[in-house]
Design goal:
This protein is an alpha+beta fold and 275 residues long. 57% of the residues lie in helices and 10% in strands. It has eleven helices and six strands. A hairpin with a 2-residue loop joins strand 1 and strand 2.
Length: 275
């Protein structure tokens, strides 16, 4: 039997019925496509034609299983299945760790008698400051699979197969985060690296440091008490750094920019209680 179809708004054909059957089986024709053959009064849906109806019914019954929750290897040309990557949680966990560590770092310099004003002006400050943290982070992830910030946000790090990271794997992961994730914490480079990491993770399903290392971050349900601890830790770390660095930063800024002395005088007069 010869079948006519509509292609691009124009009549096309005729096609032998076996050719139409092949198109349907290979997904080349949708069920609502209009066709006609001798004996019909008008154009009809192809799934309403008796000899093709059974094909569509079988296709409707055969459905693939739900997508896996983890990436799967499909041999050559493997397909990456994107999973929830918890970018917002990971962002706050990361900066919780860095803020608290930074506050403790400045506190150690303060009790060590260092000139904090001079230290704060060092162009290599962020590099010197963050290297020890990322070494410590590598050990924490290797030993416990998490850090204080990640623990508060219900996150843990492991290899894709669920095994714990070796110390070498943890160090490589932390160094990649330091370089590509936060750009050593430098003022203009850090936001750029974070933005690029965000979009890269959205595109490939993982931050680049986890993608290259074959790692994954899993999340449990957020605990409200831990969340309150994270918020409190943020504010405590910020206030500690401000109270330690404030006077030293003021001194250095006024020395380099004498015109700002009046601004600080007004600030003290407005915010500090009168004695």
């Amino acid at each position: 039997m010869d079948i006519w179809r509509i292609v691009g708004g124009k009549r096309s054909g005729p096609y032998p019925d076996y050719e139409i059957r092949g198109m349907i089986e290979q997904g080349g024709m949708e069920a609502d496509e209009r066709v006609w053959h001798e004996g019909l009064d008008e154009w009809v849906r192809v799934d309403q034609v008796g000899i093709f109806k059974e094909i569509f019914e079988k296709k409707a019954m055969v459905k693939p299983p739900p997508l896996p929750k983890e990436p799967v290897e499909l041999g050559e040309g493997a397909v990456l299945v994107k999973t929830k990557i918890h970018l917002t949680r990971r962002f706050f966990a990361r900066w919780m760790d860095l803020f608290v560590y930074g506050a403790l770092w400045w506190l150690a310099l303060y009790f060590g008698g260092r000139d904090l004003g001079v230290a704060s002006m060092n162009p290599w400050l962020m590099f010197i400051m963050y290297i020890p943290w990322f070494v410590l982070e590598a050990w924490l992830i290797h030993r416990f699979g998490t850090t204080p910030g990640k623990w508060l946000m219900g996150l843990s790090v492991s290899n894709d197969d669920g095994s714990a990271l070796s110390l070498k794997e943890s160090i490589w992961r932390s160094m990649r985060v330091l370089v590509t994730g936060i750009g050593f914490g430098w003022r203009w480079l850090s936001p750029l690296c974070q933005t690029m990491s965000w979009f890269t993770a959205r595109r490939i399903g993982k931050p680049v440091w986890d993608y290259l290392g074959g790692h994954k971050v899993t999340a449990t349900e957020l605990n409200p008490f831990k969340l309150m601890g994270l918020i409190g830790g943020f504010f405590a770390a910020m206030m500690l750094q401000f109270s330690i660095l404030g006077p030293y930063m003021e001194k250095v800024v006024v020395e380099q920019h004498p015109g700002m002395a009046k601004d600080y005088e007004l600030w003290h007069k407005f915010y500090l209680p009168k004695r």
